[in-house]
Protein: Protein-S-isoprenylcysteine O-methyltransferase Ste14
Organism: Fulvimarina manganoxydans
Amino acid sequence: MSLVLLGQIAWVLMVVGWYVIRFPFERRAKRARVSATRRGLAETLRMAISFTGLGVLPGLFVATGFPRFATYEPIALQAGLGLLAALLALVLFRLTHKALGKMWSVSLDIRDKHKLVTSGIYKRVRHPMYTAFWTMALAQALLLPNWIAGLSGLVGFGTLFFLRIGPEEAMMEETFGEDYRAYKERTARIIPGVY
């Protein structure tokens, strides 16, 4: 089996694994009442850009090989690191969804009786779901040896992250006040001890 095919299969399995983890939470979230939201055109555009980078472009490459001109020959170390990153991303997704439970939301929503989650994986990191997506985007870059499809996840998700993190933290501070400010003081955004 070629490294290109191995990477493509691993990417598909990572995406399927992500959806299997997310599906029950997404279904439950549709039934939960939202008391405050920051959804709107800006959020829709951020999500569309992220989805294009993490889904559309890599999916097109895996399905058709497009854009062929940007494809290169990967090395075994790259494929191995991509597999490890994909596994780590799925573990992080599972831990974040488990910790959030009923508080999970795909977007910037506050639920009725919303509680600030500060335990489990959230004990040291405020946004481990974003850590998981960064890891998924890195896995994609390593698994898909195409300068456009591989790197599109980092660009697409990076756009969502940097445009959303400020409004999200402002919403959390508005909702939870001093509790959230204290939580921010003792935690990192996405990487413990770094950022």
The two ends are 39 Å apart (CA to CA). Helices lie at 3-31, 41-64, 76-100, 128-143, 152-176, 178-186.
